[in-house]
Fold each of these.
Amino acid sequence: MQDDREANLAMKRRRRRAARLTMLLALVCAIVALALGAFQLQAEGLNQFLYRAPGVGASK
Amino acid sequence: MITGIDGRIDIVTPAAGTHDDAPPVDGAEHVGRGRALGAGHSDTRLLPLLGIWFFRGLVVIPFVLMTPEIIALILGRPDSVAHVSASTADVLGTSSLLLFVMMLTVTPVHTMTGWRWHLVLRRDYGVAMFFAAGTDLTLAALTTGDTFPGGPVARIAGHTFLVFGTLSVFLLIPLTLTANRRAMHWLGGHWKSVQRLTYLLWGTILIHLAFLFGLSSIFLDAIAVSVPLVLMRVPPVRRWWRTARKRRSHHALRVSAAVLLIGLFAIGYTQLVGELATKGSAAFVQRPPSD
């Protein structure tokens, strides 16, 4: 009985850790994408970063 | 108890603070002869099987449409870089959006009809979207130097719309990595919380399209398909629909609502499919629009 409860708690802890790890990966992915954007914003300036000429990025 | 990405039902310890509100996990989901129709279970009925393979087959379309241009690029043919540069966003970008929409449609279809045979498609479309969007990002980084001077980073993050497109692809990484049965057991009841990143992804995709198209064309189509999909996910709506379906009540109201929602969805969806058909066929014969 005691062993079952401990095993259950250990499993819950492991799953919580796994969820944290996955969310951390998602956070890192988001930060990398936003950091690339911030780097380009600094390099090109706001106008260039915001302005999209017709046909750029998609043909419409 | 959670319904897996492939429609199978798993019993796992729920995560603290989460509740099981996602699709269809009631044991009362029976079809016809009283046999539970778990999509992942060995189901020998021909029609659902054909349906699954038909809808699965659709995921190869974007790759087939881009194959001639990619082969030409690999072979170093003249103008191949310009062709891929002109086609990749139109074909693979639109395809990624369509695959995302089809993935999001799986749950509302279940809520409306009670079908389970198609639940397996949720994972297939999600994974296919990752590959389509990943290929789009890779090809954009390699070939769009004509429109985005300044190297690969400028080509994937040099504008507001590019940043949100890249962010969307990057958010697909944890979602795709956890889109399997092993990850479901590894995460237990937390799996659903992780998969809710899909809603964040939905937001970043709409922002990407808003920056790219403004209040016109594809952005409005994406809003048109999103509205019914969001409405069918609102918990009171979903609960009401499921209960009414099981009790066989409010038939006229359900039919009217379904016609309205499907109609609005179809308006946006057909436009997106039309866009892919036009640009995709042009890419397939290596005559993209900018030629």
Note: DSSP finds twelve helices and four strands in chain B.
Amino acid sequence: MTTVQAAPRPVALRLRGLSCHFGGVHAVAGVDLEVAGGERRAILGPNGAGKTTLFNLISGEVFPTAGQIEVFGQVITWVPSRKRIRLGLTRTYQTSRLFRMLSVLENIYLAVLGAEGGHMRPVRLRQDREYRTRAREVADRVGLADRLDAAAGSLSHGEQRQLEVALGLAGRPKILMLDEPAAGLSPAERGSLTGLLLSLDPAVTLLVVEHDMDVALRVAESVTVMHEGRIVAEGSPADIRANQRVHDLYLGQPHSPSGEGRVGA
Amino acid sequence: MKRRRFPPPLGVGRVGAVQSWRWLKRLGLAGILLVVLLVPQLFSTFFASTIGVQSLVLGIAAASIIFLNAIVGMVSLAQTALYGIAAYTVAKLAVEQGVDPWMAALVAVLITVVVALMFGAVASRSEGIYFLMITLASAVIAYYFFSQVTTFGSHEGINGVVPPALLGKPFVDPTGMYYAALICSVLIYLLIWYLRRTPFGYALQGVRDEPVRMRALGFNVPLLRTAAFGFGAFMAAIAGVLLVWYNSNISPGAIDLTRTIDLLTIAVIGGLRRLEGAWIGALLFTIVQTYSPKYTDRFETLIGLVFLAVILASPGGLAGILGGVDRWVRRRIGEVGTATVAPGQRQP
Amino acid sequence: MTLRRLRAEIAHRMAGGLALLVLVIAVVWVLARAVGLFGATANISLFLIVTLNGLTLAGLYFIVASGFTLIFGLMRVVNMAHGSLYLLGGYIGLRLVQNHLNYWLALALAALAIGVIGLVMQQVFLRWNQGQDLRQALITIAISVVLADQMIPYFGAAAVAINAPGGLNSSVRFGLGDVRYPTVRLVVLGLAVLIGVSLWYAIQHTRFGMIIRAGVDDRAMTSALGVNVQVVFGVTFFIGALLAGLGGVLGGTMIALAPGQDASFLLSSLVVVIVGGMGSLAGALVGALALGLVDQLSGVYLPAGYTNFSILLTFALLVFVLAMRPTGLFGRR
């Protein structure tokens, strides 16, 4: 599907010259990225391309060695991780990080609580009932309405990934970052995930990191491809599908050495 | 595995068996609670005092360890040092300054919590085994502090601490002391039961399960851990106050490494993941400690071996064993498997 | 942007800054008093003796703590029984010397015995539950309780010292300040240096050491590469325990042996490793020096009437390092 030129949307996320290296390895090197509000962007790339590190930089789990991050025009490069949710930024993880000993409902309730604040409160108030209702709604959206009381640790892999997404949605984010949401899912599960993502509020900016091209290309309106910490291609899904360099990257053929994307050994 | 039929005592069929087991448990629990309530009336002064009061007070101290581990995922060995601080504060104020015992107790709890919050602020950025080591080191340092600084009476400690008139003399008539300890135990148990279902309680459990995600969700993890540690100190302080009133004295020997490990032993034997285990473990410990000298001089070896056996065979401790028996029975009589968790209830 | 980052970092460091201030004041105070300021008579020889006490104690701490950090660095086992192994080693050495065995032979045998005991402990109790940090810590705690309690009936509750071998019974004269210092303590310091250098060499330049370094970095990968990690673990635990036992005999000669010493050396190992960083030999060196010097200097140089608060300076050291770097000066997660 080709993108249609619409009225210019505000820039939700902007990365300028973002770099991050750990002990000599440039996980992310000089990344410039712009994502508009409400855009559905997929970030693709082979393993080790730096996609997850990019997410970690945006969500504040890791601080960059150079560059700048802006969310809705606000510079947040050094803002501590826990304050970023206030800006409407939520993320999910490649390997599910669920609260295993709590129930599905309690998991999502915690995510809502985190976004709404007031979590040092040692008393139950009316808000908590509202939060639980919200949690139920989110659980319903991701298809876990019948598993509310199940301990998160006892869910099947597919259900855990569903809960992962629910935790990302619970905070009513403005920017939702999904790290390999389709990892390990069966084709049917992948289908319902795609359906869920397509039905998201159009105002929400969606960033999906994927190793697997299928889900990503169906949901995305634009794609960024990374390799060895750098962006090597950007465009619509059709452009990317036709891109020979990307093709070579995924099939492992050495592409013509151009000095780009080569990081120190 | 042989399938044996479990004959239901009342009623027929599966539903009858399930109901019967539930009633049996409720009756058993009611019976135990009744006995606990009437210990001073049912048992000798010696038993009520030495076993009864001590089990309750040590139970409160052990509960602080279990609370921190089960709810927040922090294993703290500093609890003995904290109840030492409370005990020494009470002793110093009451004996040397003549302060009213209740006032001394209040000040002691406050000081202990403040110290714990300050320490917690630094220690809360360490997780897991590191935290255990830091609290252990601090506990031993606290012991050396109290045994070296002369104003605390060095190795003698401070004697002559008199409990408030309301509680009476614990070795003459333990009734007052016993009910005070019982009330404190019950209140603390109920408080934690309530706290667990509050936003604060859920946040702590989140920190236990996934601290990294909690940060991303917007929670201040070090602050939560510090606050939890402060609450644990509150519990330990209460135990310390009761303990110094019970013993009428406090000395470094009450908070040395052996005692620190004894408290951990109680928590582990009772069950590190279930709050009830604190008092169960304390009861067992106190009984063995009181009656084993008839058979052997080496009480610590005995309790150490029990500790080892529990860790190797049944890490859930006695409470875990009881829970396991319950689950076994329920499976036998056909009740549905227990992978579900009711909101607000935690699976051990 | 940079200001915000700076503020965030400063907020974390306030507790550490305070502790650092205390330590800096302490150092200045000590040096000043040694030289004769603040109302003290200049006493260089006292300063020298106390500093040497600190250094030799640091040597002993290093020997014991290096074993502790080796075991943790590779196997992530916090060996809470380390203090008990120290004391047991001392007592075994004591018995051997009392039975007229040559001191050095007794030293070697006691160290080996403890090494074997440690190995047995690891094989029986720790081999099958690797990765369960808490459980293993609890197991070693239980073992330490049993060991400590069993030593009392066999070795008594009174403090005893091991007699130093003939040649070491004297003291060495230093020209500076006309100081006489017990030779045995200097020998311990020398041994500590020797052991430190040997360990460093073994870890940096031998194949076995390389395996240890790789294992500390990434255990799963090392195993996948075909290295028999179980053998490596066993040997490492053996060496770690051996060092504890060795330290026990030396400590028994230098200081004394008594039922409280196991707690004392467990504490010192913990502090050295918390300060220096887990799994780091350099960290153990720095930590041992810090602890030994703070311990001895504060015992003498704190204002009169406050010398019994010296333990608080050790605590300040601990707090300072934790506030700065929760994983220790040379540590990594």
Note: Chain B touches chain A at residues 195, 197-203, 205-206, 208-210, 212-221, 223-224, 227, 339-344, 346-347 (CB under 8 Å).
